[in-house]
Amino acid sequence: MLEWIPELNWMRSILTLLLTSIFLLYWYTRIPTSMPRNIPTVPIYISLLGLWSDMGQDTIYDRWLRAPLEKHGAVKIWFAGRWNVLATRPQFLVDMFRHEDVYAKAGSQKKIPWSVIAALVGDNIINSHGETWRLFTSIMKPGLQRRITDSGPLLEKSRTFVDVLLEEQGRLGDGGGVLVNPIIQRWALSCMGISFMNIDLEALERPGQRLEELQTIIKKTLFKPLFFNFPDLDRYPSIFRQRKAAFAIMQEFGDLLCSTVRQRSANHSTNTKTPNPDGDQVVDYLDRALQENRITEEQYRANIKVTFLTAHENAQQLLNSTFWVLGTNTRIQEKLRAEILATGIEHPSTDLVNSLPYLFAVILELLRLYPPVSQLINRVTTAPATLGGEISIPDHTWVGWNAFGVHTDPNIWGADARQFIPERWGSDVKSIQGTMRSRTTQCHFIAFNAHSRKCLGQGFAVLQMKVLLFEMVRKIEWVVDPGYELKLTSGGIMAPLGLRAIVREREVCLKEGD
Ligand code: HEM
Asked: Which of 458, 462, 468, 469 to mutate to test the pocket of ligand 1 (most atoms within 8 A of CB)?
């Protein structure tokens, strides 16, 4: 009888839809019963905060993750559409990083192969496992770890970077600080190009090129919180039109990058500045491997793209943090300047920058407090495992780590863990290297990861920063714009957002220039 009352029918439909949605959401986000019970669970809404708030990842960590992680060493956390185990206790990390057979690398191409991020990175040297990884490493390692004896090309890019900063400050006058990130990105792209792609992209000299524009778009697209947390939505690009556009951008980037590097031999004749002082670069090794059919075209593209991305993005964000730390802590900037000026040298060689202890220690301390790769969950158990002999993890569970948490844990770094103290690393290059090595082996310092899958570009990254800082500190002084309030990125790569710095040329350099 009631069936005939239209309002009731309508309400029943709404109620059914609502209950079905609630049930589906519950089913999608429920914690599998097989997940470890002896570690706490971070409530799911913490992972979803990005949907309605732009809180920085340091704040999120301090409020909701620090206490359980410092107490239990690991937590269950929602990330990329599933529940994962996230660890920070060094004993758990040593186990995870030393047993790559059990905690196997499995990046987005394995976890969410249909997604935009998987379309971007593919199966590459960073996220592959086993035979494939060994093949990629055998091809690329000589290029990634080639010894750079000539600091000239990096120095030239550092000088252009400083000139562009000063030009921009000149244009602004007293109207505030320079927005540093876009200029930093151009510096990072240039250094990456001349060091790994064997091509001078001239990103500093010719701003606004499409490859540079695409980087800005890609970084914004990848970390969209809705799709980051619910990557299943990427399965439906016809419903979510912005994801259709995102797939197109990833394709455009891959095509443009590969055609650019393939044209480099032709460019060499017209671009005499392109340096290749220290032998073949990664791109040359990859070219040969493709010609010899050791890798497929798809593998070639994935590795070119990941080298391009990783070799510029991490340095870019580390330099943003450098502007913040040294621009608010001018005493440290001054101390660094004193060390650099004491050399009396304007054109430092690789050996010279490598001989400066404070410069090295400042860079390590930056990496400790502002690790660009602050969190990664890209390993999967290949069998039931017991992490650190304490946490039972079922087969096929994703596990990961949080470097910011490890590096700021007072149980590991002492009561002053949150303070920027370069001296903690040592006072001479040898002791600093020793501290870095032992802290890395113990997984107290994991900015470059540790053990079998540690960063292969680490040597280059530190050298590039040394050369740049040498030139910056010698030539300019900077402070953070007083109107700028620190906000770190809310997820993904860690760095200050939208930092503005007031830059001026040092008096002495001005006089020398006259
Ligand atoms: C400040 C700069 C850098 C930081 C903080 C950094 C950090 C890292 C981290 C944390 C990993 C481990 C990733 C994982 O566990 O999945 C890694 C791996 C890697 N990085 Fe870097 N990286 C930097 C610069 C570079 C540069 C310049 C290159 C050169 C292309 C590079 C190439 C690689 C490669 C090839 C791997 C994979 C190693 C393997 O799995 O065998 N990185 N890096």
From this structure: 458
